[in-house]
Every structure is written in C-alpha cells, then in structure tokens.
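Self-study notes.
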Amino acid sequence: MKRVVFDIAALIARVVIGVIFLAHGLQKWQAGLGATSGMFAESGVPMPQLAAAFVTVAETVGGILLILGLLVRPAALVLLIGMIGAAVFVHAPNGIFVQEGGWELVGALGAASLLFLALGGGRFGLDGILGAVYRRRAERRAAERDAAAGATTTVDRPAPDTKAAYPDERHSVPRQPAEHERTQAADYDRTQASEYDRTQAAEPAERPHPAEHRPGGLSEEDMRDVDAVVNDQPTRPKPPNR
C-alpha cells in the first residue's frame, strides 16, 4: 500500500514539475538564445551563450522526460545542476521571493529535482514499465538456465553401484536373467520335452505276460487242480471263460 501511495505521489509531482520546466524551456526558445544569453550576461553568469543553450535544452528536454517518466534520474541531475547555477549566479543576491527576483522558484524546482534523483520517478512511468519488463525477462532466463542445469545434472548422473551399496554377496541385488538367457532356457526345455516324447514312442507298449503253460498243454492252474484231486482235496470251481 505504501509503495502504491509513493508511486501515485511521484507521478503527480513528476508531471507538475515537468510542466513547469517545459514551460520555462519553451519560453527561452521563443525568446531566442540571443536574448537569453544577453540576460545571463547582465546577471554575471560566466560563458552566457553556452549557459543559455544548456539551460534552454535542459529545461525543455528534462521537462518532457519528467512528464513521461523516462530517464528520470539523469534528467533530474541535469535540471538540478541548472537550478544550482541559476540560484548562485542570478537569484541568490535578490533574496527569497520570486517577485523580487529571489531564489524561491529555482530553490523549489531544485529540491524536487534532488528528490527525483534520489528516489526515482516511481513505477507509473516509462522507467517503471521498462524496468518491470526487463526484470521479468531476466527472471525467465534465469529459470530456463536453472532448468537446463537441472536436466543436465540428471542426465549425467552415474548409475548406482550395487556392489558399493551391498558389499556382502548375500545381500546383493539378484541379477535378472537377460533376454537371450531366458530364450536359451526355453529352447532347452522344448528340446528335452521332444526327446522324451521320441523315447516314449520308440518303446513298445507293455504287453500282458501270457499264462505259463506246462508241457502237455496244462496250465499252472490246471496242475493245481490235478494236485488237489490226487491229494483228495476239494476242487475249486473254475471261473467262467476258462
């Protein structure tokens, strides 16, 4: 809030002081440099022609710059020098009041120029607008440089050393098999499966062993029946289809 109040006050003071300087400068232009230099010579100003040209240009151009708020501090410095010279060589011997040719007016204008030289013209002027634009561009470039530096640091960062992080082999990070290793393992499994299938196909199917026959066409079961008859044992009934 205080900054805004200062900017408004600086704007009003700039415009008012700039209009006063511009009016006096245009008055000297209309009178002509010859008449102005003659007046300065009568007042005892050294090098009146050079002083007249300097004051005329300074008040005209300086007044315009104050109104626009452009190059406020350099313009205020030049105007302050002109007011000091006018007060010392022309108005100081005549007292304070302007009606008597005193330094009242040049003193007020010089004091205002000193304030502009020390504090500037505020943000409501071309200096404030251009300064804000330059600051924003500088901040943007600084942010871009920081972002580029951060990206470069991320790209150039070395990979972490797992051996340094896990010095003990038992705590080392398990190595993931490479793609070609996984492919070779799968091919090996398919080869083993194919070999097993070929082996099973080559072996003949297990056939039931035929009942062992005794000489004479009697089977072992028939022989047991014969033994049972000889030994006077009951004969077990034969199952069907025998």
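Second protein, same conventions, sequence then structure:
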Amino acid sequence: MPQLNKPLIEFDILNQYLHTHGTPFVVAEGENILPADKQTNQYTIVILQGCASLSRAQNDVLLGFAQAPCVIGLAAGVMSNQIDYQVATETQCSGYYLPAAQALSLLEKYTLWREAFYWMTWQHRILEMRDTQLVGSNSYNQIRASLLTMAKWDESLRLRVGVMNYIQRRTRISRSVIAEVLAALRQGEYIRMHKGKLLSINRLPLDY
C-alpha cells in the first residue's frame, strides 16, 4: 500500500460489516453530523459522500478535513477519550454512525483487526504529517505548509474554503500576520487567489 494513500480496500470491508448496524444520516452543508444529544467521542462515524471538517470542540482548532469515503472514531470504543470533537459538514454529507462500543464489538466478531489497523495507520500518518508541519515551526512555515496542503485538495474543496479562515483555524496565527504574508506572496506572484480562495501555487519561498 503506497504511503499516505487512503486504504480504500480496507474501508470497503469495514463498511460491509458496519453499515447494517448504523443509523443513516443525510446532513446539509454547515451542520453537525451528530445530533446535539450525542458526543463525537462516543461514536464511530462513516462518511460515504461529501466532506466534513474535524475540530476540537473546546477551542475550535481545525484538525483537518475528512473527504468521503472516511471513518472517524474507529478506535473510540477502545479507550475513553476526554477530549470531544466536532464533525461539521463542509458539503452535504451522507453516511451513518453507530456507538463506538458496538463498532468495537463488530471488529471483534468479524475479525476486522487487519482492516482497522490499516485504516488507523493511515489516519496516524496524516496527523503525523500535520504535526511535522506545525509543531515547532515559525509562523511563516506554518502558513507555507497550510498553503501546500490546500494545493493538494480537490479543486471543488479548494474553491469553497477561504484561505484566511483555514489557516487561522488550523494554526491560531493572528489574522493580521496571515494577511501580511498572503499579501506578500500574492505581490510576488508566488500564489494566485480570487475572492479569498486559493487558485494555484507557482512556488513558495522557503523563508519569508
């Protein structure tokens, strides 16, 4: 399996056994996937269509985007998590959710540990890459890494998400600093933007 490629074969196998036990959902853009009376850290969520954002409920720090197909919270039933997360739709999303404890029982019943391991390893590598980009880096390098991340998105997602908002929620760098760096990069024709959205990156200097 190539590094950082989403393990789609393993996802299909997991979905085959989980979907008959899930509560289906179709949620419009800009809404939370789970009902207000349910905590994300107690559920496994499977997104079959659409794109959602994952953020910490406490401080709204953006961890990333989950584009279908995707499983969130597959390991939530293994160990209690004191940090709650919010999964909100960036586009209309459909899929299903089920209690994390039930998902864990299904992994055990149908011997799905290999598939779960592949999926969780992929998620770990994505978060590891995020930490490499942000932890211990100065403001410019965090902004640069965020722009490079956006450049890899599907065009449809890139044209929906504002550059300023994404970088600020992801890094917590002040909006004034982000605006200054973006203006300099646009002036130097390193990036192209339109109405706050990223169109393309020509190249990004290593230092600011």
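Instructor comment on the second fold: The two ends are 37 Å apart (CA to CA).
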